[in-house]
Specification:
The chain is of the alpha/beta class. Helices cover 32% and strands 23% of the residues. The protein has 11 helices and 16 strands. The strands form 2 sheets. Strands 1, 2, 3, 4, 5, 6, 7 and 16 form an 8-stranded mixed β-sheet that branches. Helix 2 packs across helix 3 and helix 2 crosses helix 11.
């Protein structure tokens, strides 16, 4: 990179055109492979947080990682407001940025606004393991939640499974679930049916998707039929007592999940221990552990999210933006030390 190139700023509106669900799935698989090969280094501690209570109710989270294979380093930072009534998580008004730098020189190369890349990453990295853990030819999908995660999960699912015949959905708000059903019925050309209860949504599903932002238990083990796979996006969305009753459970990272209070409590209480885990997802990707081995298996995929996925997505967007002449070129400050020359 020459000095005149400066730093490329890629705003949210640009990122939407630069990263598709299909591309996000491919990047997710590649990052899992890197994770298994040990070429990713994360910060210590893995997350830095500033949580300020009243009267500000402001929260900042920062994560960092080096992806040696690319190579690129990235710092992810986001903030949100939450006073118990108003919560801006997931809204465009809260800040979400990734700063990318060349690890060989330390020179900043890009600032990417990551509302879209984070949203599609969250879905892609969680849906991808269905390639190994899911049923062979699913016909019915059950989605719990109809927000951003649910929408992007569906975008990724139809890339993996183009022959889905029916989708059922539910949410707390009857209006929102009906609107979701009508919109996606038109988009997919198949029935998308709004249901009142979670049990009605997932009990006949070949694949269940837990895509809420709730800390409450939403889905329970007895509701899952033989041969189904449930995909859990959130902290304890799937009843912890049901985990050991399923045939196989996989997670993105045992270490990262242990940072989550609910997950750690289950492990420390012996409800679900490391020995009960079938695999981390990178072991499936690299063929170190088998995926589904029988048609009647009931399996669970659970992720908490890896910052390496966020950085890889933004690096991909950055490289694509450069080729297409997209983004806003910021002036570079030059070389040497800061301050007046004289």
């Amino acid at each position: 990179m020459s000095q005149k190139d400066g730093v490329l700023f890629i705003p949210y509106a640009e990122t939407i055109d630069l990263l598709s669900a299909e591309e996000a799935l491919e990047i997710s698989e590649n990052v899992y492979r890197m994770q298994g090969e040990g070429s990713i280094t994360v910060s210590s501690p893995p997350s830095f947080k500033l949580d300020v209570s009243e009267p500000f109710h402001n929260h900042w989270h920062v994560k960092c990682a080096l992806l040696e294979e690319i190579p690129i380093t990235g710092v992810r930072l986001y903030n949100y407001y939450n006073d118990g009534v108003r919560n801006t998580v997931g809204l465009l008004e809260c800040g979400r940025y990734i700063i990318l730098a060349d690890p060989h020189t330390g020179r900043n190369v890009a600032i990417v606004e990551e509302h879209w890349t984070y949203a599609i990453r969250s879905a892609a990295a969680t849906i991808l393991p269905l390639k190994w853990m899911g049923p062979k030819d699913p016909k019915q999908i059950g989605i719990v939640g109809v927000g951003t995660m649910a929408t992007n999960a569906l975008r990724c699912l139809i890339k993996l499974y183009p022959n889905i015949e029916e989708v059922r959905c539910t949410s707390r708000n009857p209006g929102s679930r009906q609107e979701f059903a009508e919109e996606w019925t038109k988009t997919l050309g198949i029935p998308v049916i709004a249901k009142e209860t979670i049990q009605d949504t997932v009990s006949e599903a070949d694949i269940g998707i837990g895509a809420t932002t709730s800390d409450k238990v939403m889905c329970r083990e007895p509701w899952l039929k033989s041969g189904s796979t449930y995909v859990s996006f959130t902290r304890r969305e799937f009843d912890p007592e049901g985990w050991p009753k399923l045939d196989k459970v996989v997670v993105d990272s045992w270490e990262m999940n242990m940072l989550m209070q609910h997950f750690r409590h289950s492990a420390e209480e012996g409800l679900f221990t490391r020995e009960m885990l079938h695999a981390e997802i990178h072991e499936l990707v690299r063929g170190k552990k088998p995926g589904r081995q029988a048609s009647n298996e009931r399996n669970l995929i659970h992720t908490t999210g890896l910052v390496a996925h966020d950085i890889a997505m933004c690096h991909y967007v950055y490289e694509k933006a450069k080729k297409l002449g997209r983004g806003i070129q910021l002036p570079h400050t030059g070389t040497g030390r800061p301050g007046p020359k004289n």
